[in-house]
């Protein structure tokens, strides 16, 4: 169980960092937020992969297609986060 949690954090960090590198513009995100975006992106990528290919993972946890799906999902989550989170402004200034 601890190995699964550590691997989710590592994959989340890699996917989130790659997403931040691939999406243009400045993102004011901390390292923990990058990990969260990567982890959520992994779930989004896995869900989209299941919807498109109708195939569940059977060859283990680390797969090249799973990492690519994680990065694509993290890019989607990051773009949504920037679109929704970018609307917050301070009023009264």
From TrEMBL:
Q: Report keywords, A-Z.
A: Cell membrane, Membrane, Transmembrane, Transmembrane helix
Against Pfam families, the record matches this protein to: Transgly_assoc (PF04226)
The record's subcellular locations are: Cell membrane
Question: Which residue spans traverse the membrane?
Answer: 29-53, 65-84
Q: Among the entry's GO cellular component annotations, what is one?
A: plasma membrane
Q: InterPro entries recorded for this chain? A: Transgly_assoc
Protein's membrane topology: Multi-pass membrane protein
Please report which protein family the annotation says this sequence is part of: Belongs to the UPF0410 family.
PANTHER family found in the cross-reference section: UPF0410 PROTEIN YMGE
Q: What is this protein called?
A: Uncharacterized membrane protein YeaQ/YmgE, transglycosylase-associated protein family
């Amino acid at each position: 169980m601890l190995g699964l949690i550590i691997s989710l954090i590592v994959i989340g960090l890699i996917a989130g960092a790659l997403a931040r590198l691939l999406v243009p513009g400045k993102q004011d995100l901390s390292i923990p937020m990058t990990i969260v975006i990567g982890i959520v992106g992994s779930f989004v990528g896995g869900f989209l992969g299941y919807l498109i290919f109708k195939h569940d993972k059977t060859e283990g946890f680390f797969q090249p297609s799973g990492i690519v799906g994680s990065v694509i999902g993290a890019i989607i989550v990051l773009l949504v986060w920037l679109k929704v989170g970018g609307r917050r402004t301070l009023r009264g200034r």
